[in-house]
Structures are given as C-alpha cells and as structure tokens.
Amino acid sequence: MKLKDKVAIVTGAGRNIGEAVSHTFAREGAKVAVVDLEKARADKVAKDITAAGGTAQGFVANVADEDAVKKLVADVVKAFGRIDILINNVAISDNQHILEISKADWDKVIAVTLGAPFLMGKYVAQQMVAQGGGGNILNIASTSGWRGRPRAIAYTTAKGGVINLTRSMAVQLAPHKIRVNSISPNKIGSPVGKEEFDPTRPVKNLAERTGVPEDMAKACLFMVSDDSDFVWGENLFLDGGTMAMELT
C-alpha cells in the first residue's frame, strides 16, 4: 500500500474526481477526510469506502470561508490525529463572457476556485509544520488556466492563479519538507459544476477518448506517493495530449 497510515483530505469529494480520488487513496491505506459542501454526498462516499474495508469520514465545510477551513482542519486532526496529504480539488465555473459576468459571479468563482486552495493550503500547511514530518499538497488546476477560452473568464483566471499559487507554495514550504504540485486535467468526468458524467462528451486529444475520474485518481496517487518524491513545484498535464496539439 502506497499511502499506508497516511491521513488525506480531499475537497469536493462528494462526486466525480474527488470521489474517485478518495476511494483510490483509501484502497492504498490512507485514512480519508471526505470534504463536501453537501453532507449527504460526503457521508455516502465515506460510507462506501468504509463498506469496502477502508477508513473514511465525511466532513461538511465551505472551504472558501476562513473560519470554516480552520474548523475543518481542527476536526480532521481530532478525528485522525494528523494530516499528511491535501488534495485541493473543489472548484466552480462561471461559463460567462467578460462583457456579461457580474462582479458577484466573478467574486464567487475566484473565492472558491482560487481562494479555497489558498486557505486550505495555508492552514493544512500550518498543521503539517506543527506536527513535523513534511507532507504533500496537490492542487487541481486545469488546462483552462494555461490559455484563454471564449467562455469562462473567472474560471480561467482562477485556474491560472492556482498554477502560480502552486509554484509559490512549493518554494515557501519546501524547507518544511512539504511537497506542493499541481495537475491540469482537460475534460475529465463531468463538467465543473455539473452532476452527470457524459461519456459521449466531445473531446479533441491524442488519446481519442474522454478522460474519466479514475484517470485523475491514479495521477493523484502518483503525485502524493513516494513514487514522485523528486517532483517539487511541478504541474502534470492529464489531458490526453490536448496541450501538445495545435489549436484549430
């Protein structure tokens, strides 16, 4: 088991990528804090993991709120004793044009998609430093953070911020043996903010297939395990080769 006795927090874990990551980490021996804004979702994933022989507990938190993040970190430590891994997965999108988006919509997307990884990263890192032994923080970015889109102005901006947040966190936390990296997926599972996964969703990549949450789960496992212990401050594109292609 690659994560035996590790404690992992996964945000946005009630479905899609977060759910798959939670199950994969549990199978590899981690105790998983399944974090979601909806209690029923968090509890269901935790219950499914427990039924399969793993260890997990559901937690409800608005990870864009500083006080809620402080409480979440304290609650996870109370439940599991420490924190070794953080997956900053939660995000929302606007899917709007700059000429249309309201300031309120902009602020909400930035707060959740960029602000939450900052807050979770700060307070989890403080816990990691206090307990000693280092740790791993993995931020879920997006190919949308690397280039412009005709729709979604706040989301692309936020994900671009996540990419450089990762680099700065990596530099600042390296002295504490905390590795920080990111993964940039492209159209993995259901669209951000959508309930259903459509396997027929059109994609254009070298793999000639749609990415699935299990693809992300395997990549996340690699990035937080000892298999990648020489990877610091890097981004992994999990996009089926999309970013290698010429835009047409």
Short summary of the structure?
This protein has 248 residues and is of the alpha/beta class. It contains 6 helices and 7 strands; from the N terminus they run E-H-E-H-E-H-E-H-E-H-E-H-E. The protein has a 7-stranded parallel beta sheet, with helices on both faces.
Description:
With 248 residues, the protein is an alpha/beta fold. It contains 6 helices and 7 strands; from the N terminus they run E-H-E-H-E-H-E-H-E-H-E-H-E. The chain has helices spanning 16-27, 39-51, 66-80, 103-131, 153-173, 213-224, and strands at residues 7-10, 31-36, 55-60, 85-88, 135-140, 178-185, 235-238. It has a 7-stranded parallel beta sheet, sandwiched between helices. Helix 4 links the parallel strand 4 (85-88) and strand 5 (135-140). Helix 1 crosses helix 6, helix 3 runs parallel beside helix 4 (103-131) and helix 4 packs parallel to helix 5. The longest helix has 29 residues, at 103-131. The termini are far apart. The mean pLDDT is 95.
Helical percent range? 40-55%
What is the distance, rounded to the nearest whole angstrom, between the alpha carbons of the first and last residues? Answer: 43 Å
Find the count of extended strands (DSSP E, 2+ residues): 7
Name the overall outline: globular
Element pattern in H and E: EHEHEHEHEHEHE
Low-confidence parts lasting 5 or more residues at pLDDT below 50? none
Radius of gyration: 17 Å
Largest sheet: 7 strands, parallel
Share in β-strands: 15-25%
